[in-house]
Amino acid sequence: MSSEKRPLIAIPMGDPGGIGPEIVLKALANPEIAVLARCVVIGDKGVLQQAAAFPGMPKVTIHVINESGLQGGCYEPGIINLMDLNNIAIEELKLGQVQAMCGQAAYEYIEQSIQLAMAGEVDAVATTPINKEALKAAEIPFIGHTEIFGGLTET
Questions:
Q1: pTM for this one?
Q2: 94 neighbors 17 (Cβ within 8 angstroms)
Q3: Which of 38, 111, 138, 139 has an alpha carbon within 20 to 30 A of 32's alpha carbon?
C-alpha cells in the first residue's frame, strides 16, 4: 500500500496516568501498523517520553508535528507522530491514580481527534483507555467515549 492510500488515523493518547500511553507506544512500534495506516497520536510529549523509558518498552522516535501539521508526519515504522497538546504538568502526574488533570487532558485529546475527523483531516479515530473517574474529577459532562463522541458530533 502506498502512503497516499493508507488511511490517516488520529489516536487520542488516553488517560496520561493510565495504560493508554504504553498501549499507544507498543502498538505503533509494530512495523505491521505502518504498512496498514498512517497514525498520529494526540497527546503529551512528556507523558509519552516517560512511558517510553519504562523497562521493556520498544525503542521509538517521537516526532512532534505541531508546526508542520499532519502532512509533516513521518509515517514510517518506529516513528510516533505526535500532535503535542502539552497539557500535563509532568511533575504533578501520579501514575495509576485518579487525577482531574488527567481526565481533562484525556478529554482534550479526544476532542482534538474528533475535530480533525469532522474537518476531514483524518480518516478515522482509534481510541485508547480513559478513566471515567478522572473525567468526573475534571467535571467533564460525559461519562465515556461514546457520550463524548455523541456530544461533540451532535449525533
A1: 0.94
A2: yes
A3: 111
pLDDT of amino acid 95: 94
Strands 79-84 and 38-43: parallel
For the record, the C-alpha cell of 59 comes out as 525503542
pLDDT at 4: 67
Determine the distance from the C-alpha atom of residue 121 to the mean position of all C-alpha atoms in its chain, rounded to a whole number. Answer: 16
SS (H, E, C) the chain: CCCCCCCEEEEECCCCCCCHHHHHHHHHHCHHHHHHCEEEEEECHHHHHHHHCCCCCCCCEEEECCCCCHHHCCCCCCEEEEEECCCCCHHHCCCCCCCHHHHHHHHHHHHHHHHHHHCCCCCEECCCCCCHHHHHHCCCCCCCHHHHHHHHHCC
